[in-house]
Each structure stands twice: as structure tokens, then as C-alpha cells.
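User: Okay, second chain of the day. Same drill as before: sequence in, C-alpha cells out.
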Amino acid sequence: MQKLLIPFDGSDNAARALDYALRLAKRTPTQLHVVTVHPESVVYGEIQVYVSKEKMDELQRKHCEDILQSALDAARAAGVPVTSEILTGDTAAAIVARAEALGCDSIVMGTRGMGAVGNLVMGSVATKVVHLTKLPVTLVK
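Assistant: Same drill. C-alpha cells below.
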């Protein structure tokens, strides 16, 4: 059974990457591991008066859980074995480290993430992942 790691941020490109992985899984027995990365939150200065770091972490984690749920629902509806996880830290490094730790055969990911700023960020994340890993990476537009 092949093992694929799918970074998922809820964007259209991430959804297309997940769809591609699900199509692969229908042809060859495949285990999907879907991850989203929760960056380390940093709360500066006066904002701490209104929102604590703990509250920011809680809100980000809930957002990540919601994002992952849609991916889990799609995989389960397709009858594909799936696990999920929220990672923390530098996005590209976390993706690569987890894929390698799990013994994944490949990483399948979108080339762009959420929104205008997200497009720049996810594009650079995809590029970084390709450079950091020795695993095959499939980029889906």
C-alpha cells in the first residue's frame, strides 16, 4: 500500500491536490495522511491585552481542525483510508519532516494557497518542500 502525505490548507489548489490523490487511491491501494500546519503564533505588545497567546493558539487550532475536517470527509466519502494531523512550525520543514517520519512514498500538494498573500506563501512553501525533501513531490495546479 502506498502512503501519500497531502498538505491541506482549504484552498482550491489544495482541494485539487486532494482530489488528485483520491483518484490515485482508487487505482492503487493508498493510505492518505492529510496535514495542515499551524504556524507558531506570536502575540505582540498591546494585542496581548485583548487576546492571549493561548487564545490565539486555540482559535488557530480550531480553524485547522475545520480545514482538516473537509479533507477527511472527502476521503471517507471516496472510501480511501485517511488520517490527519495538525503540525506546528515552519510550514515546509514540518511537511517534509512528517512525510519522512511516516515513511511516506510521496507528497502531493497544491502550488498555491489561500488568497493573494497565501498565493505567495504557498507557492514558496511548495518550492521549499521540493528543495527540502528527497521524496517525490507531485504539484497540482
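The beta strands are 2-7, 30-38, 82-88, 106-110, 137-140.

User: Thanks, on to the next one.
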